[in-house]
Amino acid sequence: MSITQIASTATTGCAIFRQTGDCIMPRMGLFARVLAGGAVAVGDPVEIEETVPRSAFQTVVLTLSDRCAAGLTQDTAGPAVSALLRESLPAHIYRSEILPDERGPLAEAYATTPTATASISSSRWAAPGFPRATSPLRPCAT
């Protein structure tokens, strides 16, 4: 498992609050992403692989390129965008991925990204100062 968020803002509308009159999420809540199947039990060892400062922006960098996705050429845009985000925000790169330049894979990546904002780079556009253009990731109709 990978912990994706520690704690949460309490709301009077949550199921825990409705059942108990108290919401433990701000004090004890953890949100996790399952990385591999299996059982987890009380007392299992925990290994911390990486800690991310709360001040860091969580980002996802997606490179949209048919040629890079097929392994025909090396992605230079994704690593460049990642470096710019780390240096200028600072940002933690939650995930970096190369996708074919098609609506379906992009919509799937957006739907499964737990962070609120991501940055994409595509081989179709050019922008001054970047190896390839970047733009904010927005929901796309499928």
Explain this structure.
The chain has 142 residues and is α/β, with parallel strands linked by helices. It has two domains: 2-33, no CATH class; 57-136, MoaB/Mog-like domain (Molybdenum Cofactor Biosythetic Enzyme, Chain A). It contains five helices and six strands, in the order βααββααβαββ. A four-stranded mixed β-sheet has the order 4-3-5-6, with helices on both faces. A two-stranded antiparallel sheet has the order 1-2.
What's the SSE blueprint?
Blueprint: E1 2-6, H1 15-20, H2 25-28, E2 30-33, E3 57-64, H3 66-69, H4 77-88, E4 91-99, H5 103-111, E5 119-122, E6 134-136
Parallel strand pairs: 3-4, 3-5
Antiparallel strand pairs: 1-2, 5-6
Features:
single chain, 142 residues, alpha/beta, Molybdenum Cofactor Biosythetic Enzyme, Chain A, 2 domains, 5 helices, elongated, disordered C terminus
